[in-house]
Design a protein that fits this description.
Elements: H1 9-18, E1 28-29, H2 40-57, E2 59-62, H3 64-73, E3 76-78, E4 81-83, H4 86-93, E5 99-102, E6 111-114, E7 117-120, E8 128-130, E9 136-138, H5 141-153, H6 172-186, H7 198-212, H8 214-219, E10 225-229, E11 234-236, H9 237-248, E12 253-261, H10 269-290, E13 297-299, E14 301-305, E15 312-313, H11 317-333, E16 337-340, H12 351-366, E17 371-373, E18 378-379, E19 384-386, H13 387-405, H14 412-422, H15 432-436, H16 450-455, H17 461-474, H18 483-501
GO molecular function: methyltransferase activity
Protein name: Methyltransferase
Family: Belongs to the trimethylamine methyltransferase family.
Length: 502
């Protein structure tokens, strides 16, 4: 007598097909590129220009501790202006590792930064969201939670981040507590650290130590935090305070000039790169005064400026060329580098958004970028994150991952046999090779007939993205955390929250 069929079996199978568990992609080890635009003379020319800027014009460190540190190290310090000789600069950055491992609390999600490796990181810092119905509104903590959840469920998003949006409903002194706690508990992937203040940076390191252990954090990278230079040629106190905290703890930072080409830098790819290289290397050199050998990342955030309105432009040619040059210079200095992509000045996930997004990603990956920030969701010149675009961008990251993985080893003799067997006028749909090696498919793109698309609701990409965002959030599964870690983390946050709100 056969056993009775289990109830719900068909429903479970349907659910498994329509809501499959993520298959996480590893660190992208690029087999395509990088492109080198410059010959050796061109690289040397930009290097000399960057060194000349640091030696003659100098750079301001608007922080008394940093100024004292530079003076003790032997730099020329006049007021807040620091001039750094090229020999000193090159000696300091020579201790920055070429690559490092960025650990996640789930070891299966750990990634590598540097060399031929690339990772994708979440959007960062938008004050607005475009909601699941497309409505633009101020961002809230619930949105940050949602983007952490989407980052956790994304197959290609390696770093859910720390500040996918600015939660306007949380007081600033407490904001970092809520965000770091959420990033550590809603995801088990690598995260960034808060740079809101020195206190926020210290709290972030402490929370990481609770989860990973103090000794592990001291000897391994568990955070990579984003610090912006004020281009042109200013490192301010808030950023430098955070840099000291993270460098002392052996945690790298993305030392990133925020470039508006034609406004904050010359309207010249070579001149702009020379300036931003000088700025980033100065921050990197200072980190080595704090803790020699601490990993750091040469960072850039490059936009053009509209000569019509002065507004930022994304996806334009010159920033793409600049990213290619920055990549070549990072390889010259033997340091990892970071850039921004997948962003647009458009106010909806429309054709302009698609063009800008693609045009900003290709040069960054072809330039060999190691740490790619803003990899999904940005609209409105990085002021807003769209749920629909986030999901669509995340699917595109899988395409980029596949492309830059490059060609696979193939048995051409077996394929010749298939061609002979199929013969003229046949097809290859039923061959073993086709079944075993299907072409990559983006399941959010519609390639059906017009009639079928129309019959199924004529859904445009924004609608499809919002539907998919809802589906992912409905099926989100929170990764487990040991009870003792979670208890200690909750206790720390509760104590600090009470202290900062008093």
């Amino acid at each position: 007598m056969s056993e009775p069929r289990k109830r719900g079996g068909r429903a479970n199978r349907v659910a498994a097909r329509t809501n499959p568990a993520p298959v996480y992609l590893p660190t992208l080890n690029r087999a395509v590129g990088p492109i080198d635009l410059l010959g050796p003379e061109g690289v040397e020319k930009i290097h000399n220009a960057a060194m000349t800027i640091l030696e003659t014009t100098g750079i301001e460190f608007r922080d008394p501790i940093a100024l004292a540190d530079w003076k003790r190290a032997g730099a020329d310090v006049q007021g807040e202006r620091v001039r750094i000789g090229r020999d000193m600069l090159m000696d300091l950055i020579s201790s920055v590792p070429e690559s490092y491992t960025l650990h996640a609390r789930n070891g299966d999600r750990t990634v590598d930064v540097g060399g031929k490796n690339s990772i994708f990181a979440n959007a960062y810092g938008a004050p607005f969201v475009y909601d699941l119905d497309g409505t633009r509104r101020p961002s809230q903590l619930a949105d940050a939670h949602n983007f952490f959840k989407l980052g956790q469920m994304s197959q290609a998003m390696h770093v859910p981040g720390i500040l996918p949006v600015e939660p306007q409903d949380i007081p600033v002194p407490e904001r970092h507590l809520e965000l770091v706690h959420a990033a550590l508990t809603l995801t088990d992937k690598p995260i960034k650290g808060s740079v809101l203040s020195e206190t926020a940076a210290r709290d972030t390191v402490k929370m990481a130590q609770i989860v990973f252990g103090e000794e592990f954090v001291d000897q391994n990278v568990v955070l990579t935090s984003l610090l912006n230079c004020n281009t042109p040629l200013v490192w301010d106190e808030t950023m430098l305070e955070s840099l000291r905290v993270y460098a002392s703890a052996n945690q790298p930072c993305l030392l990133s000039p925020f470039v508006l080409a034609g406004a904050s830098t010359p309207a010249s790819p070579q001149g702009g790169v020379a300036l931003l290289i000088a700025e980033s290397l100065a921050g990197m050199a200072y980190s080595q005064i704090i803790r020699k050998g601490c990993p750091m990342v040469l960072g850039v955030a490059i936009m053009g400026v509209s000569m019509k309105t002065g507004a930022p432009m994304m996806g334009s040619p010159e920033p793409g060329l600049m990213n290619l040059i920055v990549g070549q210079m990072a390889r010259f200095y033997k340091v990892p580098w970071r850039s921004c992509t997948m962003w647009t000045g458009s106010k909806s996930p429309d054709l302009q958004a698609g063009y800008d997004t693609a045009n900003s990603m290709w040069p960054v990956l072809l330039g060999g970028c190691n740490y790619i920030v803003h990899s999904a969701g940005f609209l409105e010149g990085a002021l807003g994150v769209s749920y629909a675009k986030w999901v669509q961008d995340s699917a595109q990251l899988e395409n980029f991952h596949r492309f830059f993985t490059g060609l696979q080893e193939e048995n051409l003799d077996a394929l010749l046999d298939d061609i002979a067997n199929v013969g003229p006028g046949g097809h290859f749909l039923g061959t073993d090779h086709t079944r075993e090696h299907p072409l990559h498919m983006n399941m959010l793109q519609n390639n059906d007939s017009f009639e079928q698309w129309e019959a199924e609701g004529a859904k445009i990409a924004e609608v499809v993205g919002n539907i998919e965002a809802k589906r992912i959030l409905d099926n989100y599964v929170q990764p487990p955390m040991p009870v003792d870690q979670r208890g200690a983390l909750d206790e720390f946050v509760a104590k600090k929250r009470a202290e900062y709100s008093a």
